[in-house]
Amino acid sequence: MPADYKSHANRKQKKPLPGFIWMLGGLSIGLFIAFLVYLDKQPASEISFGDAVKTELEKIKQKKTGTASKSETANKQEPKFNFYTILPELEVLIPEEEIRPPASKNKPGKDVSKRYILQAGSFRSRQDAEKLKATVALLGLEASINQVSINKEKWHRVRIGPVNNRRELNQNLNLLHRNNINAMAMELK
């Protein structure tokens, strides 16, 4: 007996997918593409994911054994401070005792020819120097920024002065210390 191809009873009718399923599918595809674009715009990190996993595994192994690896001790270097090499020859650091002598030793007219300067900070970033200069200006002191090159690196020094007497120097120094700015007094030659 031949099959009746016209009969619809043998065929199963497919129901169309509801609209919210299409909407969720499109939304998830769109979010996935946005995520890929976001990842593409991110700067490349110095350590890849595989390296990070390896370092975490090494840390776990070290905790179990209790020994430090040679690579970590080689990476730990003491910071280098070349403070005394960066001061130019025209400046002399004044010890606190000399700035604030006891009242019996303070003789008027002794420091008439001496000029002083306060250095409030020294920064690699010009922006950091500008921020400190603005902070000092809010305290009522006029500061300047001097750019110097030390070991082929640019440094920006925030300086206040010159000041012609110790009394004004002490007032400025006290004002800066009260506002958590550790300034350093220097005598100009």
List the helices and strands and how they pair.
Elements: H1 19-41, H2 49-65, H3 70-75, H4 83-86, E1 91-93, H5 96-99, E2 115-123, H6 126-138, E3 143-150, E4 153-163, H7 166-178, E5 184-188
Structure description:
- It is a single chain.
- The chain is an alpha+beta fold and 189 residues long.
- It contains 7 helices and 5 strands, in the order ααααβαβαββαβ.
- Strands 1-5-2-4-3 form a 5-stranded antiparallel β-sheet, with helices on one face.
- The protein is elongated.
The secondary-structure element order is: HHHHEHEHEEHE
Strand order of the largest sheet: 1-5-2-4-3
Helix content: 40-55%
**Distance between the amino and carboxyl termini:** 121 Å
Count of distinct strands: 5
Rg (CA only): 35 Å
Q: What would the CATH topology of the largest domain be?
A: Alpha-Beta Plaits
Tell me the strand percentage band. Answer: 15-25%
Shape: elongated
Average predicted confidence as pLDDT? 76
CATH class identity of the largest domain: Alpha Beta
Largest sheet: 5 strands, antiparallel
How many separate helices? 7
What CATH architecture label of the largest domain applies? Answer: 2-Layer Sandwich
Structural class call reads alpha+beta
How many domains? The number is 2
Quick recap of the structure?
The chain has 189 residues and is of the alpha+beta class. It is built from 7 helices and 5 strands. Strands 1-5-2-4-3 form a 5-stranded antiparallel sheet, with helices on one face.
Key terms:
alpha+beta; elongated; 189 residues; 2 domains; 5-stranded antiparallel β-sheet; Alpha-Beta Plaits
